């Protein structure tokens, strides 16, 4: 039986026919593409170390994304926000409509009281 130099798994008869004989059933490495480790013990116990540049790059990328989102949000607010004059004009139009409705109501009331409207 063939022993994997990457993970140390020894092929079993149950692996035949399911997993190609060129591939390790446990770790999936292709035997022909693998080079034997210089120190097998050190290779099997070695854990991958994180790359500091990759972590720093990810944080930097996240900062840029946050800045872009904030700039977009501010831009949308500035485009859609009403100026103080527009807000004042809007309130004035609401009040004028209310006063106009009240005046019409008063005219109808006077017409009913005088008998012009029945």
Q: What would you note in describing this structure?
A:
This protein is an all-alpha fold and 118 residues long. It has 3 domains: 13-45, no CATH class; 54-81; 83-118. Helix content is 56%, strand content 0%. The chain has helices at residues 40-45, 52-80, 84-114.
Whole-number count of domains: 3
Oligomer: single chain
Low-confidence stretches: none
| Gross geometry | rod-shaped
> Which band does the percent of strand residues land in?
under 5%
If you average the pLDDT, what whole number results? 82
Class computed from helices, strands and strand pairing: mainly alpha
Q: What is the count of β-strands?
A: 0
Radius of gyration: 40 Å
Profile the largest sheet. none
The total count of helices amounts to 3
Helix content: 55-70%
N-end to C-end Cα span: 109 Å
**H/E element order:** HHH
Brief overview:
This protein is mainly α and 118 residues long.
Which labels suit this protein?
0% strand
Strand-helix topology:
Blueprint: H1 40-45, H2 52-80, H3 84-114
């Amino acid at each position: 039986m063939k022993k994997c130099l990457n993970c140390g798994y020894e092929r079993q008869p149950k692996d035949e026919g399911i997993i190609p004989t060129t591939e390790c059933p446990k770790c999936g490495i292709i035997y022909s593409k693998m080079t034997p480790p210089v120190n097998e013990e050190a290779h099997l116990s070695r854990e991958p170390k994180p790359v500091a540049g990759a972590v720093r790059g990810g944080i930097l990328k996240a900062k840029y994304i946050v800045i872009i989102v904030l700039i977009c949000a501010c831009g949308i607010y500035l485009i859609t926000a009403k100026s103080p004059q527009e807000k004042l004009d809007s309130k004035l139009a609401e009040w004028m409509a209310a006063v106009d409705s009240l005046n019409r109501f008063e005219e109808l009331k006077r017409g009913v009281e005088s008998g012009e409207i029945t």
